[in-house]
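Course assignment 3, question 2. Fill in each field.
Student: A.L.
Task: Predict the tertiary structure for the chain below.
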Amino acid sequence: MRFADIRGCDGLVEALAGMVDSGRIPHAIMFHEDDGGGGIPLALAFLQYLYCQDRRSGDSCGACPECNKVSKLIHPDIHFIFPVAGKDLSSRYMEEWRELVKENPWFRESDLDAALGIEGKQGIISVAESRGIIDALSLSAVQGGWRSVVIYLPEKMNQQAANALLKSLEEPSESTLFLLVTHSPEAVMTTIFSRCLHMRIPPLSEEDFLAVHPENSPDYNAFSDLFHDLVVAIEERDLTATIEAGEAMAALPSREKQKNFCRAAGESLRRIFLLQQGLGSIARIPEDEMDFYKDAAAKLPKKFPRMALAWFDRAAKLVGANVNQKILFSDLTGRLFTI
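Answer field:
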C-alpha cells in the first residue's frame, strides 16, 4: 500500500510523510475513521513509507524488499492486534486477517467478524493480547529498525488489557511505534486515548465509498433517500411523515444496516453543517444532490447538524444493545423533530 493509493486524505498523507522525512515520529498515532473509511490503508501506507529503502518524492517505492513485506503483511517487525472472540489471540487468525486486508483494505468491522467466523459474538482485545505484544516488543527488532504495532478497534480493549499496555505507551522503547485505528475514540480507555496523537480521517466521498464498497451501492442510495425523506418531513413540520421515517429506519433488514444508516446520516449532516458555515467547497456533495443539501442548510437551524449527529451516534451504539428498534428510532425521530 502506497500513499498514492489512499483516497481523500491528501493533508494527512503530507503530514505523515513529513514525520518520516523529518525524523519526528510520534510514538503513538490514533486514526479515527468511519467504519470502512480507510484507517488500515493509511496505517499500512505510512508503515510502508517508514520501512521503505528507496523513498521517492514523498512515497514508498513499492518495489524494495521492505515494501514487499509490508504490502504482504509479513514484515517480522510489524504486529497486528484486532478484536477476536473470548480469550483467543489475533495471532491465531493472521491468515484470515491477511486475506481480508489484501482483498479490500477498506474493510468494515462486520467484514472482519465474517472473516474470523465470529458474527454474533462480542469481539474483544484481551489482557493476554496486550501481554503478548509487550513480550514481542521486549525483543530487538528482527531487521534492526522500527518495531510497530497496529491495533484495530482499541475501543474493544478491556480495562485489564489497556492497563497492561499503558506502560509501553507511556515509556516506549526507542524506535517503537503504535498505530491505532478507531471508530469510536470516545469509547477508548482514557489512559490510552490521552497518550496518542489524533488524526481524523475525512469521510469518503460518495464516489470513493462506492469504489471501495461497490456491494453497498443499493444500500447507499436507499440510505440517501431515507435521510432525504426525514429531513424534508422535519423542514415541513410534518410529524406524521417524521414518524414514518423512523418506522422505515426500524424496518431496515438488519442491525448492521441500521448502524450503517446512522453513519451515512452523519456524513449527510456533515455536509449540511459545512454548507451552513460557508464551506460548501470542501463538502464533496454529489451534483444531483446539491439542491437538497442547499435547501436543508437554509431551512434547518444551525444547531441541527451538531445536535442531530449526537443523536444518530447514540442510536448507532444502542442498535447493538438489543433495545427495541421501533422504540429506539421513534425516540430518535421525535428528538430530531424538536431540535
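Instructor remarks: The radius of gyration is 21 Å. Strands lie at 28-32, 78-81, 84-85, 123-124, 147-152, 176-182, 197-200.
Grade: pending
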